[in-house]
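SUBJECT: protein chain
CONTENTS: sequence, structure tokens:
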Amino acid sequence: AANEADLYNQLQGAGLELVDCTKLDTARKLDISLFLKSVKIRDLIQFFIHMEQMQNAGVPLLDSLADVRDSSDNDKLRDILTEIYRDVSDGSSLSEAMAKHTSVFKPLHISLIKAGEDTGDLVSSFRQLIKYLRWVDDMQSRVRKATRYPMIVVVVVILTIVVMMGYVVPQIVGFIKNLNQELPFYTVALIATSEFFRGYWWAVLGVPVIVFAGIKILRQLSDDFAYRIDALTLRMPIIGPITRKISVARYCQTFGALFASGIDVIGALKSARQTVTNRALLEAVEMVEKYVQSGSPISEAFNNSGEFPSLVVRMLKIGEESGNLTPILEQVSDFYTKDVDEAVQGMIAMIEPGLTGLLGGMILWIAAGVFGPIYSSFEHINF
């Protein structure tokens, strides 16, 4: 609350009485904010499920917001819902109140709520949001699953290289050199690699970090550089197809949810465009908008962009001809969900044995380079 009078009015509006209050100083407020939980997708799903159920049961909007606010376990979401409740009670619409909290409610959420307010059917908007957020949460879970194991193996490989090249191999190198025998090429390469790592370990470990940070900074400073990097990402063997499918799947799912909620085609396409972060793909979906604005059918616009499979284009064409586009868009969304799932599973199947083989090859090289000369020296020993 801004002051004691504001606090009193808020409590009165919620049917509560002010017993006692204490003014928080700036430092105290900062400390509290640091411990507030972030609002996750599953918190939003739970919020919209409660709103959909209560609105479907005929509970007034303000009462629904109050019930959801009081039952929320997330401190940050509860504070935000308190502000939304106050704004709505002061005469603002739900979409206008949510628009003040863009860190939690994205433009897509607000667009769907506004469409429900315009059509007088908030329940359908809540259902579309629940379906969309569940799809996004499921998609993020798939991506995390695809990247979790490779990241663990990469860390293990890096730690193995650091320990073996920085500590183990140098301690054995002196003994190997004193064997007074010709060393095999793999042992010579191992010694040279170890010496290089010990002399320039800071460059080996620091250069990738510097390059990654530099690319990220240049992406923010130069749109042309960011476009080239995004286009290069799409051409990469494994990451490219996965990135393309995930972006297009998110775009189709968003467009379908917006269109099903009653938003016009152009508005739905423009809002769905905000979910595409790859600039090369963004150029393609912008072409879709231009084709539709010029009078082209949706299926033809999707086909001319060159980023959508022919099966999807044919499904959209059937939906246009039958005048039943909404269920077709849901089928397109299901098609891409399965397609992305298969692509992620295929990537996992390729990356896991590859990284495991790399780790095994590294250990085998070190073992052969260290123990090979030692075993060879036994041949010259007379017992």
Remarks:
- Confidence is low (pLDDT under 50) at residues 27-31.
